[in-house]
Amino acid sequence: MAKTIQADICVIGGGSGGLSVAAGASQMGAKVVLLEKGKMGGDCLNYGCVPSKALIAAGHAADTVRHAGKFGVNGHEPEVDFLGVRDHVRGVIAAIAPHDSVERFEELGVTVIEAAGSFTGPGEMIAGDTRIKAKRFVIATGSSAAVPPIPGLDHVPFLTNETVFDLAERPEHLIVIGGGPIGAELAQAQRRLGARVSLLEMFTVLGKDDPDVTAFARKRLVEDGIEIHEGIAIKEIAQDGNGIAVSIEVDGKPQRIVGSHLLVAAGRRANVNGLNLEAAGVTYSAKGIEVDARLRTTNKKIFAIGDVAGGYQFTHMAGYHAGIVIRNVLFKLPAKVDYKAVPWVTFTDPEIAHVGLTEAQAREQFGDKVRALKWSFEENDRAQAERATEGLVKVVVGARGKILGASIAGLHAGELLQPWVLAISQGMKIGAMANLIAPYPTLGEVNKRAAGSYYTPSLFSERTRKIVRFLQRF
């Protein structure tokens, strides 16, 4: 007979969002049950953000050695111990893992059940030999790599973000399917660690961001030696001796690319299988679970957060969702999501960062009232000192100087974006950024200079000169 647990909140999924809900709710006095069938920390810690950034850091270290000559330091082709790189990635995961561990959450008062959960009704589910009855449920099961329906793909070995970090030897020639953020980041990291890389994209590499900023990253990918194939159709994948052959079509002309390894980075799919959502009265689709602005599903006692809820698939959004749920469930506040200031960063070199509306989106909504302000990293003294002048800040401004969006390409773009996130979330105008005092010499001055350019046409106009000449008479 299954034992029964009564809880205030049952959280399904021990990734970023689920752990945030479980930790917060338990420390605030709620009785919490947490279900996790795999590894605590979820995709972000074990297969996503953490290992990818650790691998990118290794690639950056190799590239720094390779190009140190521009600083007058002995630059040379580095020797890469790929097994050592793997150990580095695993070491970073191990350093963070205790924060997400079963032991820590049990110390916080959370009942952790290491098993898959399946709904048996609208207010209960079963996990292993335990039945859980809860006042509220939070589904935080995340997403997994989507496998596109390419002929032959199911007959060859291929890597995804869940397996690529386990490689103990450098791929001789890595073929990457998918030119989005994950594909571009991993392609560049592997190339900088010495692999030959071919990047295949049906449309345009990094096509979801503003082309004015993605141009910098795309240029660097090419300079690094990545073979980019855009606007292609993949016709078939087949084994080719010990390698893998991908048959593509470009402008109606067939091509064949043969590599040693294949990485599929062609999007994500919500993890809903096995939850038996039908029994709980929860509506879902291939895109994820249907939720309202308060993140409630069609069963108002069940919430869904993070990747499984569709929409923005970022770890920081899962954490944001967790706060919305806690306010709704624990404090009975009708808190709703607000997506006007959602930031994201693609960790290529140079980084690409964005928040708010792109120029194209803003012009579609507001027409001629929109102005695009730009400032190049070449005009920044710190960027010159760092020999990192390839970059741009682009700010989209609406009527009366309201900040609508910002995109940045360049060194530490993700860090430089954060003032713009605050500005948009608080409805600030461009004068707030233009008037701040930025320490010199810092990269952050690019933000102030871009903002200040809003006033350049009026400050240095003939009208201003006439006013100044008149006032100087007194």
Automatic annotation (TrEMBL):
NAD(+) binds at residues 178-185, 201, 267. Its cofactor is FAD. Residues 342-450 form the Pyridine nucleotide-disulphide oxidoreductase dimerisation domain. It comes from the Bacteria. FAD binds at residues 53, 117, 141-143, 307. InterPro entries: FAD/NAD-bd_sf (IPR036188), FAD/NAD-binding_dom (IPR023753), FAD/NAD-linked_Rdtase_dimer_sf (IPR016156), Pyr_nuc-diS_OxRdtase (IPR001100), Pyr_nucl-diS_OxRdtase_dimer (IPR004099), Pyr_OxRdtase_I_AS (IPR012999). GO terms for molecular function: flavin adenine dinucleotide binding; NAD(P)H dehydrogenase (quinone) activity; oxidoreductase activity, acting on a sulfur group of donors, NAD(P) as acceptor. Residues 8-321 form the FAD/NAD(P)-binding domain. This is FAD-dependent oxidoreductase. It comes from Pelagibius litoralis.
